[in-house]
Write a structure and sequence with these properties.
The protein has helices spanning about 5-35, 45-55, 55-70, 70-90, 90-115, 140-155, 160-180, 190-210, 240-250, 270-275, 290-300, 315-320, 325-335, 365-370, 375-380, 385-390, 450-465; strands at about 215, 225-230, 255-260, 280-285, 305-310, 335-350, 350-355, 360-365, 400-405, 410-415, 415-420, 440-445, 475-480, 480-490, 495, 500, 505-520, 525, 540. By secondary structure, the chain is an alpha+beta fold. The strands form four sheets. Strands 6, 7, 9, 10, 14, 17 and 19 form a seven-stranded antiparallel β-sheet that branches. Strands 13-12-11-8-15-16 form a six-stranded antiparallel β-sheet. A four-stranded parallel β-sheet has the order 3-2-4-5, sandwiched between helices. α5 (about 90-115) runs antiparallel to α8 and α7 (about 160-180) runs antiparallel to α8.
Amino acid sequence: MTRTRARAVRIGVPVLAATTQGAVLVAGGLLITHPPAGWWDPGERGLVAWLAAHRTAALTGASDWLSALAFTPAVVTVTALAAVALLVGRRWRGAALLSGAVALQAALFVTAAHLVDRARPDVVRLDGALPTSSFPSGHVGAATALYGGLGLLLLRPGHGWRRVVCALLWAVPVLVAASRLYRGMHHPTDVVAGALNGAAALWVVSRTLPARQRHRTGPAAPVRGPVALVYNPVGVDDALLERLHAVVTAHGHHPPRLLPGSAEDSGRAAAERAVAGGARLVAACGGDGTVTACANALAGTDAALAVVPCGTGNLLARNLGLPADPADALAAALGGHARRIDLMRAEGDGLPARAAATMAGMGLDAAVMASTHRGLKRRLGWPAYLLGAIRHLTDRQFVLTVRVDGGPPVRRHVRMAVVGNVGTLQGGVRLLPDAVPDDGLLDLVLVQPQGLRGWGAALVGLVTGTRRPGPAAPLEHFRGHRIELTADRARPRECDGDPVGDGRVLALSVRPDALLVRLPGTVRETPLEGAGAARTEAGRETA
């Protein structure tokens, strides 16, 4: 298919779908208002009359509030705020889905209402005599497109609270429909048509937008050979091990070898035993420390790593686009494909060379991680770090000398310095917007705000991903293959979230294509794509 033809199909199919949706909506309305002889009477008048006869002050107040959720000013405001929030979070597809669905259903509602022109129910109407037609219900259509769309965007595997919020959002169109009937503003078929209009608009717009996946990698590559689970016995209990065991066997593998990691090496020796025993896939079940230990053992081998997030930060899992639930993440890895990513080599004064997979830093971030109690992390998860951050916000700046790829030294007064192989923190914050785990480069950010205004600018930059160039910027970025940090005095240091002792020097070097990891799906996911230029794609996939 030529590009011109493909473009015509991409534009023509959605237009045809929207036109068909509008035609069906109008045809249905005309069929209801001008039924042929012998047409089935749904008995709509009786239901609306019964509701009008049983009104109470409490129900009327509730219906007024519910109707207000779907009035035009509320719909426009909520849609705009949600779209802005999605764009700030770099979820342009979600913003386009929500805005497009609301706009499409509104356009079709106006068209159908004008052509059908159905009279409203013959009861006392609590909203007065509105100028628009009763068919279809614009309130229900807008509520379905808006709140139903928000529910779809929130619905993800492994997030229990998301399911609850999603159910509440999906209940809004149903409650709005009930309120419109109660208030005598619509017939039952009007609200049904409105709900179908909103749902169809969501479907049409979702099919119109390009898929999130961008680069084809061929069919999913199954894991061939034995599987081993290396787990942190502190964070992984017997119940979770049984779930993970069931996932492995459900994908057609023999029962996996279960290897608990030790406190001394976080599971590196266990991973080395697994590889020596012939394991083709090692699932690291723990936090970033366990993942890094297993990555260190698997680096340079043909055995693949599956990241099973069971810790506090789980930064590598987040940046690889894996589900947050451990069993879902393992299932996605087993059913996905393999790909090589980079690792980091960290070293410094008093710090023997070690591997790092996500980030390493000096200053405020390391101090926060060192002072956050393990028990608090187990109870609260990553928000426990926020409490530690509050305690260290008043820490003084220190003088740091930066050297990138052996170039001239750069001297700065900073709060902290973070070098990353990946860029996204918890909550979707893009600390290193250009960081890509397979581009053969490392990214550095110097956090150096001056006063409250500087902290405010730094926070805005973190949330939006925007930057202000120059050495006076609150966030200053560098990129290179080797980054050396030298402080004026010993400062806290961390690698992949683990404190590694105070010191003056922290040097990071990239290890290109060092680790084979399992990723979900049959296509390259967006979390591996940054804003910076990535390396050539040829030869980077491994079946």
